[in-house]
Amino acid sequence: MRRKLSELNMIVFTFSRLSHLLRISGSKASVFRNGTEIKHGAGCCVQLRRFQGMQSNGSMNKKGLQDRQKQQMARGLPKQKPIRDVKQVIVVASGKGGVGKSTTAVNLALGLMAIDKSKSVGLLDADIYGPSVPKLMNLKGNPELNDDNRMIPLINYGVPCMSMGFLVQDASPVVWRGLMVMSAIERLLRQVEWGSLDYLVVDMPPGTGDVQLSITQNIPIAGAVIVSTPQDVALLDARRGAEMFRKLNVPVLGLVQNMSVFQCPNCHHHTHIFGSNGAKQLAETISVKFLGDVPLHLNIRETSDKGQPIVISSPDSPEAEAYRKLASAVIQSLEEHTR
């Protein structure tokens, strides 16, 4: 092996010297005119052709290596495998935090059940670093294991739920690197006994990172719901989120405009605190469906903090109606994408 490397180094050195000589000969036309020098010139050509042949072979070998690497990478990617007994997975995502994504996910799951009592809906909290479902659904405790060593979801309001928040203490931060996070996601996806579900709503972490890639590559997703406020800064990230799902071949069911308008409880005046119709305009720009508005209302915040989502605690309120309309729009969009 060392001998071959030595020979290759000599060839590279020879080629370098020959190139230098040829550059000199270009300025001295008489170099190739006498017999001896013509022989040297022919020898140079032979050496050059040999080296160029080696370069060509090297390029072909490099291309072949790249092709083999691509094939190996393709084989290494996880194959999508459906979650057992789950018919459709709906992910609720946002480009950034603080736009009400988790509250929307919880009330969407309850709204899907409210508009069709025959449907069974589960809720998966995939936000490893900041799980909110335990608080929003008023659930505490560790999940039990069945005989197959699969976790049994905690249930409230008829919705089976699973969250990283059930596996760590309330005030304990999850300080994990990527591989540990991926392992946790894999367990939440594959080692939970959901039972028979028509819809599994997944509350995704904000952003466009490892968790989003891991989930979309591991399971077939029926569609993604993007949540944003009308504010320009939030809309920039919402657009990135929508484009990410498109690149991953996940149908974007549409955009939700959360905190769209504030109504004063005293004079009932409407104020667009975060701007007006920003998400609706973005939906038109990127050619996705606009799923509806959810207002900025004190009742939504109070019921969420109490672990009593407004769809359950105040079903006759305009705010609960907004979430039920959202659920209907999501189902309609699902049907349109599956035709």
From TrEMBL:
Q: Where found?
A: Mitochondrion
Q: Name one GO cellular component term.
A: mitochondrial matrix
Q: Which InterPro entries match?
A: Mrp-like_CS (IPR000808), Mrp/NBP35_ATP-bd (IPR019591), NUBPL-like (IPR044304), P-loop_NTPase (IPR027417), YlxH/NBP35 (IPR033756)
Please give the superkingdom of this protein's source.
Answer: Eukaryota
UniProt GO BP: iron-sulfur cluster assembly; mitochondrial respiratory chain complex I assembly
PROSITE patterns per the UniProt record, alphabetical: MRP
Pfam families in the record: ParA (PF10609)
- Where do the segments described as Disordered lie? 56-80
Q: Which terms does the record give in the GO molecular function aspect?
A: 4 iron, 4 sulfur cluster binding; ATP binding; ATP-dependent FeS chaperone activity; metal ion binding
Q: Which cofactor does it need?
A: [4Fe-4S] cluster
Sorted UniProt keywords: 4Fe-4S, ATP-binding, Iron, Iron-sulfur, Metal-binding, Mitochondrion, Nucleotide-binding, Transit peptide
Give the family this protein belongs to, as stated in its UniProt record.
Belongs to the Mrp/NBP35 ATP-binding proteins family.
Q: What does this protein do?
A: Iron-sulfur cluster transfer protein involved in the assembly of the mitochondrial membrane respiratory chain NADH dehydrogenase (Complex I). May deliver one or more Fe-S clusters to complex I subunits.
Question: Per its UniProt record, what PANTHER family does this chain match?
Answer: IRON-SULFUR PROTEIN NUBPL
Record-given protein name: Iron-sulfur cluster transfer protein NUBPL
